[in-house]
Amino acid sequence: MKRRVQVVICRTCSGAADVLDVDRLLRVASDAPYVGSAVIVNYACNKKSISEIVDDAKSKEVDRLLLVPCSKKDVSPTLFQAYVKKAKMNEFLMETVDLVGEAALPHRDDPARAQAKAEAKLLAAIARTALLEPLHKITEDMRTKNVVVIGAGVAGVEAATTAANLGMHTIIIEKSEKKLKVPGVMMTKSRVISTEGHAGNYSLSIEAGEKRETLECAAVVVASGGDWSDAERRFIDAAPDSKPLYQLDRDVSEGKTPDGTVIIIDTPDPEGARTAAQDFAWEEALDCAIEIRKKSPATEVYLLFQEMRAMGLAELAYKEAAGLGVTFVRYDAKRPPEFDSEDGNRVTVLDMAQDETLSIAFDALYYASVSPNPDNIAIADALRIPMSPSGGIRRGSIQRGPVTTLRPGIFVCGSAKFPKSEGMARLEGRAAGLLAAQFAAAGEVESGGSVAEVAPEKCSACLTCVRTCPYEAPFIGVAGKAEIAIQMCQGCGMCAGICPSKAIELHHFTDEQLLTEAAVYLRGDF
Amino acid sequence: MPDREPKIVGFCCEKHGIDSVDLAARSGRQYDSSIRLVRVPCTGRVDGTHLLKALEEGADAVFVLGCLEKNCYYDTGSIEGRKRVAYVKSMLSEVGIEPERVEMFNASSSMSWKFSEIASNMVKVAARLGPIGSRGGGR
After folding, report:
1. How far, in Å, CA of A108 to CA of A51, rounded?
2. Alpha-carbon distance B8 to A517, whole Å?
3. Number of folded domains that form chain B
4. Interface touch B53/A399, C-beta < 8 Å
5. Which of A84, A103, A104, A102 is nearest to A93 (CA)?
6. Rounded to whole angstroms, how far apart are CA atoms A419 and A268?
7. How is domain A146-225+373-444 classified at the CATH fold level?
């Protein structure tokens, strides 16, 4: 390999309002080892500049590019894909360095040090770029366009409908016997037992009644929903005749309003054993309270809550409800309300706002909280995805998106994560359906590139990587050594960092590349 | 040694970590320029040797910056990172080097204020301790 770096400095962006001296950066780059060509372009994200750079790359016979733009995220990916193609360069040999975000902007007050830092950073980036290896991605065709939706609740049906409208073949897996008119296939009395394969080509084992079936699918949406029965059991003990909020919602929409004193409470548990704040149906609770007060002003409504989460425009409903005389009582999670059903129904609660203990006799109690579905454990086990401490399915990092899970191609929506209002569940179902359809519609799935690889001669098969990887990519192969399933590997490098024999290397972030970058950077005095 | 600027290396994850640095820069926060950031895909990629080598190459302090533990892009990555840092700390105190020289931090991509705090923390530590061995410690 030639290891000749082309350094391209964008004058418009990298100068960051004259903090850095771009021409000096160019001189530093030209004198650095491995640099075959160093040029300044006026505006890098421009088709004309790209062809200039490509011509320069061809004439100077460089095989890799270091771009000094404004920030990695601002670089137009399509333009530089075109560059990589035209210059016949491997895409992993293109590197960017953000001198603006790391030197120019945060050290604006001290331009001399900022310039010295930028130069050191540039040299470090050149040293790193010189060490990069060409890598290749693998594309695999998806065998099906199936989207499997687990659960036929509000969110699940919405997800399936959305995905079906986009041309996917949807299969709903529902544990009960309920029959619904939905697009695609609906399997009742069935559940997922296990999963094999990887994103795009999952293969699920399904137990449908007595039978066992294997179902190939591209993407999975978990919409297991919540479970009211747990709250029902607990509340019936504390206050007989208590009902879930959705019941009140139905009654009110049919024009039936309760009389006397009505309490709507957010806790999932009247004994106070589980008092974590619930992100739940406050919008519905507020709407019901407003409707009741409007239709029968004689009915008193109390809202007992730990935390008010009326978001967005629902905030207006909060105001309206307060104006209509709905009483809001905020209680401390550590001191949950106490129920007493001996002489009529009565609840005693400390109002935090007034610092006063209220004793309210009530006629109807509605609980607006839904417990996590106990089936989540089996579902999470079958799909190999993590759960949250509260018993829901854990969503992936917010950077992956709000309805994603740790695993690509598996999405989660609605109360499967934590209690959601009906409207929110529907919205999330649509989001998950869209994302799953988008994922499946691609028809192929990419893997490889910056992934981990085991050097078998160093591996002592200690299983550390197998235990550490959240994606279950490493496994012990037939040779008795660890191997990495490329399609599963997400390129985080946790296995490479933890391997006690240092047998695993993460491509694109090898020990040599990281240490050289750090060492060269440290050589700069500023 | 007041005439020498401290040298600090930060291994910073490419997800929330680098985003918080970027946001800090773009919201006009200023911090000491002694910080040298090295990008890693995830703090779980950081190995004890990376931290030790950085100290060996002349860094006065080293830190690792990752996602919040409950919101890590790779789920358990920043927890792994924290464990490695703790291990290196214990190793350093065994050989008589101040363990405060190595630290783990977490930030989410929306915390614009966080990185300047981290930087000033680490600069204070590096300025107080000086280069390794300068206070008679170390071997």
Report:
1. 33
2. 14
3. 1
4. no
5. A84
6. 10
7. FAD/NAD(P)-binding domain (3.50.50)
pLDDT (average), residues A47-73: 87
Residue B122 confidence (pLDDT) above 70: yes
- In the structure, what pLDDT confidence band is assigned to residue A17 with cuts at 50, 70 and 90? low
- pLDDT for the residue B2: 53
Enumerate the residues of chain B whose CB falls inside 8 A of the CB of residue A106. 24-25, 29-31, 33, 116
Nearest to A482 by CA among A469, A470, A491, A490: A469
Side by side, the strands of the sheet bearing A201-208 are: A190-198, A201-208, A211-217
Map out the domains of chain A as residue ranges.
5-135, 146-225+373-444, 227-371, 449-507
The ipTM is 0.95
Put simply, the answer to whether A522 touches B7 (Cβ < 8 Å) is yes
Separation in Å, CA of B137 to nearest CA in chain A: 22
Residue B65 lies in a domain: yes
Contact criterion met (CB < 8 Å) for B25 and A101: yes
Instruction: Show the domain range for B78.
Output: 8-129
Q: Contact B30/A522, CB-based, under 8 Å?
A: no
For B13, the closest chain A residue by CA position comes to: A492
Question: What distance in Å separates residue A92's CA from the closest CA in chain B?
Answer: 14
Instruction: Indicate the pTM of the whole model.
Output: 0.87
Q: For residues A61 and A65, give the distance between their C-alpha atoms in angstroms, rounded to a whole number.
A: 11
CATH, domain range A449-507: 3.30.70.20
**Residue A311 near residue A337 (C-beta atoms within 8 A):** no
Q: Phi and psi (nearest 5°) for A90?
A: -75, 135
Q: Which CATH architecture has domain A5-135?
A: 3-Layer(aba) Sandwich (3.40)
